[in-house]
Amino acid sequence: DPGVRSVLAYWLSLCAADSLFTCPSSCKCNSGSLEVDCSGLGLSSIPSDIPTNTRIFLFLNNKLSTLPGPVFSNLSALQRLDLSNNFLDQLPQNIFSDLGNLTELQLRNNSIRTLDKDLLQQMALLRQLDLSINGLAQIPSGIFDDLPALRLLSLRSNRLQSLDRVTFEPLVSLQQLQVGDNPWECDCNLRDFKHWMEWFSYRGGKIDQLACTLPKELRGKDMRMVPMEMFNYCSQLEDENGSTVLDNSGPPCTKGSPTPSKSKSGTEPEVEPSVGCPQKQRYRPVSVRRAIGTVIIAGVVCGIVCIMMVVAAAYGCIYASLMAKYHRELKKRQPLMGDTEGEHEEQKQISSVA
User: Fold this and answer.
1) How far is 264 from 269, CA to CA, in rounded Å?
2) What integer best gives the mean pLDDT of the chain?
3) Cis amide linkage into residue 278, ω under 30° from 0
4) Coiled-coil annotation: which residues (predicted)?
5) Across the chain, where does the E strand assignment appear?
6) I need a labelling partner for 29 at 20 to 30 A (CA). Which of 53, 95, 201, 326 fits?
7) Picking from 57-61, 272-276, 350-354, which range would have the lowest pLDDT averaged per residue?
8) Cβ-count burial 315-327 (b if 16+ within 10 Å, e if not)
9) Residue range 316-333: average pLDDT?
């Protein structure tokens, strides 16, 4: 009977699918959605018997601290990977190289301090990336070059002090960026990224508050609300220290970075801080105060000009009203002056007749 054969074929296909999707021990699985959930089990390593056709793999709230290189090599069908709330501190360069179908990667709340610039290669379908609550101090340039489909990126609660706009320009599909709760230094190193943020907001992107930590004059203020005039000193700084900035190919200057040994000369010890950070600490607060003073002076001058214009307008109105009143009085007196002249003429005629 054809009907019986079709039913038997259907059940055989289901049995074959179930046999191919074998759930690892202690984990929960869903053969319909091809999901494997090994969350909250206190595991320190990823099970080796994950089905190769798994599409969703959840490994939250465990004790995972390292990832062996080939751990995901057989999971090319994976679309969602969540490794949040673990103890990962370093990610191998090619750890995700076989996950070409991945659309969501969650690495929230780990101890990741550095990222390799080639970490996210071969992931052109990735749409969501969560790197929040880690120890990232910088984002390497080029790490997002192969993510044209990325829509949501979270970098919240790290140790980021500055970002480079060149790193984010390849994210043509980005719709939401989360950068809050970082110790941002709103200086020249963040100026170009401020331009990118304004462009990103202009084209409809959503970004949370990028609150400044330093300098103290801008502490707590959103970087997007800081006037660009506050960074006019950056051009002066680049002109005066152009050779030093161009020759500096090392890591970004930070407060904790050691000063080079060549600066420790016995003749000029006072020049030592400006070699590692080319007068950054000296110029920044002075320039900020100068910019604030310029804004205050401009406001006072504009106020004085406005007051003078109001006084001049009031004086003109008063003068016009007085002149109008004077002319009205003058017109009233002109007929009376004509009558007196007629009386004088009559008196002269009477005296001549007599």
Assistant:
1) 6
2) 79
3) no
4) none
5) 28-30, 35-37, 56-58, 80-82, 104-106, 128-130, 152-154, 176-178, 184-185, 206-207, 212-214
6) 95
7) 272-276
8) eeeeeeeeeeeee
9) 82
